[in-house]
Amino acid sequence: MKIIEMLDKFGELDTSTIFGKLNDRRSGFGSRHGCTIATLNNVLGKEPVFIKTRSHEDDDAPRCLGNCGGNYKVSSWILNRQLLASHPELASENTNSYQLRS
């Protein structure tokens, strides 16, 4: 839900920005315990409500500063507004795309 709200408000965001906002309680999108980058990548990659606009493998992918001073490429994401329009229940905390297949 927090990622959907975030992408709805800001449009396209890269993975690092989403991760930062989810782990910053002052951002308005942060949660008490935050999330790991592995969990975030899993959700973004598997839920069809999120569309990858640029891959980390693309030449023009956004770059982020790493912990050791180096930088690395990350993917960018937007909402699949067409899917959300046809299945508004996906914006609920109690539904995920797996339930659409049933």
Characterization of the model:
The chain is globular. It has 102 residues and is α+β, with helices and mostly antiparallel strands. The chain has helices at residues 2-10, 15-22, 37-46, 81-86; strands at residues 13-14, 50-54, 63-65, 71-73, 76-79. The strands form two sheets. It has a three-stranded antiparallel sheet. Strands 3-4 form a two-stranded antiparallel sheet. It is built from four helices and five strands; from the N terminus they run αβααββββα.
Topology of helices and strands:
Layout: H1 2-10, E1 13-14, H2 15-22, H3 37-46, E2 50-54, E3 63-65, E4 71-73, E5 76-79, H4 81-86
Antiparallel strand pairs: 1-5, 2-5, 3-4
Report the portion of residues in β strands: 15-25%
Mean pLDDT: 79
Percent helix, as a range, is 25-40%
* Morphology call: globular
How far apart are the first and last residues' alpha carbons, in Å?
21 Å
Major sheet: size, sense and barrel closure?
3 strands, antiparallel
**Which strands sit side by side, in order, in the main sheet?**
1-5-2
Gyration radius (Cα, Å) is 14 Å
Number of H- or I-type helical stretches: 4
What structural class is derived from the secondary structure elements?
Answer: alpha+beta
List the secondary-structure elements in sequence, H or E: HEHHEEEEH
Number of strands: 5
Question: Low-confidence parts, pLDDT < 50 over ≥5 residues?
Answer: none
